[in-house]
Amino acid sequence: MIHTDIKELNEKIQRESAFVDILRLEMNKVIVGQKHMVDRLMIGLLSNGHILLEGVPGLAKTLAIKSLANIIDARFSRIQFTPDLLPADLLGTLIYSQKKEEFIVRKGPIFANFILADEINRSPAKVQSALLEAMQERQVTIGDTTYKLDEPFLVLATQNPIEQEGTYPLPEAQIDRFMLKVVISYPDKEEEKMILRQNIQNEFPKTSTILKPADIMNARAVVREVYLDEKIENYITDIVFASRYPEKYKLERFTGMISYGGSPRASINLALASKAYAFIKRRGYVIPEDVRAIAHDVMRHRIGLSYEAEAENITTEEIINAILNAVEVP
Amino acid sequence: MIYYKFDVNMMRETYMKNFLIRLLVLIFCLWTGVVMAQSRADIRIDTTQIRTGEQISLLLEYRFPKGSKIDWPLKADTITKTIEIVRKLKADTITNSDGLTSIRQRYIITSFDSGPQVIPPLRFGYLMQGDSTAMYTETEAALIMVNTPEVDTTQVIKAIKSPLSAPLSFWELLPWLIRIWSFIGLVLIVFVIYYYYKKGRLPLLNQNKNVRLPADDEAMLGLENLRLKKLWQNGYYKLYFSEMTDIIRLYIERRFDVMAVEMTTEEIMTNIKPLSINKEVSSKLHEVLQLADLVKFAKAEPMPLESDLSLQHCIDFVKETAPSPEDSKEEETENKTDKNPKL
What we know:
The complex is a heterodimer.
Chain A: H1 4-16, H2 18-30, H3 35-46, E1 51-54, H4 61-72, E2 76-80, H5 87-91, E3 92-97, E4 102-107, E5 114-118, H6 125-137, E6 139-142, E7 145-148, E8 154-159, H7 172-175, E9 180-183, H8 189-200, H9 213-225, H10 230-244, E10 258-260, H11 264-280, H12 288-299, E11 304-305, H13 307-311, H14 316-326
Parallel strand pairs in A: 1-8, 1-9, 2-5, 5-8
Antiparallel strand pairs in A: 3-4, 6-7, 10-11
Chain B: H1 8-38, E1 40-45, E2 49-51, E3 56-65, E4 69-71, E5 83-88, E6 92-95, E7 100-111, E8 115-119, E9 123-127, E10 135-138, E11 142-147, H2 170-199, H3 207-210, H4 215-229, H5 237-256, H6 265-272, H7 279-297, H8 304-321, H9 325-336
Parallel strand pairs in B: 2-11
Antiparallel strand pairs in B: 1-3, 3-7, 4-9, 5-7, 6-7, 8-11, 9-10
Helix pairs in contact in B: 4-5, 4-8, 5-7, 5-8, 6-7, 7-8
C-alpha cells in the first residue's frame, strides 16, 4: 500500500533507530523522569543541532549530557562560564615551549564531542561569540591554523531563569543558532522519591557504552532521509509565517505584540527537528504531530516580544499555542 | 284797553311739549355722560428719564363697552419721529364685572434723540353694534427726558469701540448643525457600504450567498460530490483523501464545536472521545484518518476497496452523529445568522 521507496525507508528506519530504545533505557538508569529533556537531547544529537537548556539548578542537566557522552563513547567537556572567562580559556591558545623553542598549540575544552556550557549568560559577549562561532562553523582557529572539531559535536548551554543580575543575555542573532531551547521543570513527587532513593544508595547507577560516535553519524544520515511531504513543508512555513505576520492567520490580537518572528533558520530547524522526532518515533515520514510536538522547543527563543506584550504578561508560549491553534493542519 | 284772551287747553298743550323736549334732552345728556365715563384710555411708562437708546416699557390700557369695535392707535413701528417701538408684547384682554372690556398692551420703546421727547395724546375709539357714531377718548400726553451720557473731557479720548458680536443662539445654529450632521451621516453610510462591499459581506445584497446548509447536509453533499469526482480512480489518492478529511474535519468542527481543522488525527480523536458517539463508528473514523495521514504524508496508495470504504465510513459517521430533527431546527436558526461560510 505504502509507496515502495517510503516502505523501504520505513523498514530502514525501523532497523537504524533500534538503538533509540536502548539509549533511552541506559539514560533512564541514571536520569529519573525528564523524558522531554532526554528526547530533545537525542533530537539535537540526531539533527546536528545545539541545545539551550533553561531550568533551575539541580535538574540533572550535567548528569544527562555526561551520561549521553558515556553511552556514545564520546568526549565530554564541562565549561563553567564566569565573568572573567576568556575566549582562549575556551578555544585554546599558543604556548611557547622552551624545550622545543617554538609555540605549541594548547587546545581548549571545546575540542570534545559534547560540551556543557554551564550558565552561558554569565560570561561576556566575546566568550559567548567565540563559542557560538565554533558552534556554527564547527572549526576553531588558533594562531594561523584552523582545526576542525570532532563530530558529533553537540553544545548544551544552560541558563538559570531565576538569577539575572550580573548576566550577559545572549543576543537574538546568537540565540538563533541554538536549534532548540528546552525548558525543564521540577520532577513530580514520585520521580522525586526515586531520585532520593537512587542518591542515598551506596552505589550510584552507571551507564554502559553501547554506541560509537560513528553510529550517531550514520543515524544522522538516515534522519536526513526521513520523508517530509510538501504538505508538511507548507505547514511548517505557515507556522513560521504566523509568528511574523499574525494578522494574516486571524491572530490580530498579537499584532504589535511580536517584535520579530521566526527566521528562515526557524523553518529549517523545525523541519530537521521534525525529521529527528519522526526518527525517534521510528517512522520514515513526518506527520503534523511531529511538527507540533517540537514546535515549542524550536520557536520559543525565536519570537521576540514587544514592550506591549511584556506589559500585558503575554509569553512566547502563549503565542506559539495560539499559532498552533490557528494554523490549519494539513 | 287790551285784553288777552288765554286758551287754557292750548296753554296746557304747549307746556307738555316743552316738558317732553326737556326730558328727552336730559335723558340724552345723562346717557352720553354715562357712556363717556365708561370708556377710558390710560398710558403708563416705567420712567421718564432714560439714556439715549435705553429701552423702557410703555403700557397702554383701553376700557370700552363689551362687544364694540375699537380703533387702536400705534399701528406703525414708531410713536413719533423720535420715539421708536422696539417690540410689541402680547396683549392682555380682561372682561370686567361692570361689563366693560380692558385691553392692556405693552410696548418696548426707545429713543435715540436727546432732549425732551413727548408722547402725544393717543386717540382710542369704539363703535357699538348697531350704532354709526364712533366714540373717542384720548390718553394723556407723556414726557420722556432722553439724556446723553456725560463726557468727561478731562480724560483721554479713546477710539470708538468696534461693535460687539452678539452670541449665537441655538436656533440660529440649528440649521447648520442639521446640515453638518446630515453630511457626516451620509459619509458614514457610504463608508459602511464600501467596507462591507470590500469584505464581500453586504448583508442585503449577498443574502443568498450567506444561507448555509446544516453541518450534516453540507458534509453529505461534500462527500457525495467527492465520490462523483472519481479522484482515486484516476490516481489522485492524495487529493481524494485530503478533500475527504477536510470535509469530515469541518463537519466535526461545526457539529461538535471542536477545532478539528487545526488539530491532528490523534488530537481530534482525543477531543471527540468524551462525546457520546457510537464506538464502532468512531473507531472506523480513526482508521480513516490514520490511513489518510499515510496517503497525505507517506505517499501511500490504498487499495480500491480501502478508498471506497473510507468514504463510506465517513458517510456512516456523519449519519450516526447528525442532529435529530429537533436539533436541526435550532441549528437552522443559528445558521441563518452565520455570515461567514467556509465552503
